[in-house]
């Protein structure tokens, strides 16, 4: 019960990996502050997570809007946040030249800018106390160029670099920084990104269980590790990518992520 009075702030905590992380914190008696856009999902999360006996507070914010990210910090200025989990993230599928620029800018604002804003604010608070933990949701996508998801992969490269750098800056502060790097996971992310036609998603067996991914991230966070790649296949993918030229990695990703229909058209041309 040592964590009874501690609080974890989790963005994107109503579904997928974020929700599974929230369950793990609740099991360890952390009180929760869950941030997401959808009010009905927040209410559902309150009922489910509150059953564990911890306090669950929900805040509806669209963190792709920078004024709402700053407003969240101001709303919580008098609260002690012991663990910050930057889980909220989005992607969009398609060729960069064709995708809507406003959608891509929203992704950059959410995946990068909101992460920086919240981390800046709550790390300053943690530093004043000399303790705290930060978990940033990266991805194996951050280690490989991603045709058909060019902006998303680039945002996750930022998250990984950012987390690693500030960890080094603050290594003597009492604060730990951990990056969780999952691969393809069985969440609604790909549906929202419009990615269901991608060749990479046609085999359901490649999708990891979000509970397993969350467990890997939670254990790494509590151990103070700098990063964790969830899943053996994802570890192998990153290791192989590190040995190849970026151009070759990008070509392989293009082959894996192109739409099934396009692959069939190419095969028809060759036959």
Automatic annotation (TrEMBL):
SUPFAM superfamilies registered for this protein in UniProt: NAD(P)-binding Rossmann-fold domains (SSF51735)
Originating species: Mucilaginibacter pineti
Protein's UniProt keywords contain Oxidoreductase: yes
Family that this chain belongs to: Belongs to the short-chain dehydrogenases/reductases (SDR) family.
Residues forming coiled coils: none
Keyword Oxidoreductase tagged: yes
Cited Pfam families: adh_short
A single MF term (Gene Ontology): oxidoreductase activity
Keywords: Oxidoreductase
Entries under InterPro entries matching the protein: NAD(P)-bd_dom_sf (IPR036291), SDR_fam (IPR002347)
Cellular component, GO, one term: membrane
Record-given protein name: Short-chain dehydrogenase
């Amino acid at each position: 019960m040592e964590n009874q009075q501690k609080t974890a702030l989790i963005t994107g905590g109503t579904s997928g990996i974020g929700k599974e992380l929230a369950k793990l914190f609740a099991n360890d008696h952390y009180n929760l502050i869950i941030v997401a856009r959808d009010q009905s999902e927040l209410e559902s999360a309150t009922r489910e997570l509150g059953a564990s006996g911890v306090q669950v507070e929900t805040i509806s914010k669209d963190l792709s809007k920078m004024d709402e990210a700053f407003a969240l910090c101001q709303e919580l200025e008098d609260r002690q946040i012991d663990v910050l989990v930057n889980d909220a993230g989005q992607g969009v599928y398609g060729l960069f030249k064709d995708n809507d620029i406003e959608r891509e800018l929203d992704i950059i604002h959410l995946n990068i800018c909101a992460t920086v804003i919240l981390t800046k604010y709550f790390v300053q608070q943690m530093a004043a106390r000399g303790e705290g933990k930060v978990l940033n949701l990266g991805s194996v996508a951050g280690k490989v160029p991603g045709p058909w998801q060019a902006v998303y992969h680039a945002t996750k490269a930022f998250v990984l670099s950012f987390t690693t750098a500030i960890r080094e800056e603050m290594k003597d502060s009492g604060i730990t920084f951990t990056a969780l790097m999952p691969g393809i996971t069985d969440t609604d992310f790909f549906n929202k990104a419009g990615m269901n036609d991608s060749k990479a998603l046609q085999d359901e067996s490649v999708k990891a269980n979000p509970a397993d991914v969350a467990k890997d991230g939670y254990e790494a966070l509590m151990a103070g590790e700098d990063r964790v790649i969830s899943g053996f296949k994802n570890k192998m993918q990153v290791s192989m990518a590190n040995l190849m030229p970026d151009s070759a990695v990008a070509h392989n990703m293009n082959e894996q992520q192109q739409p099934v229909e396009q692959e069939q058209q190419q095969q028809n041309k060759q036959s």
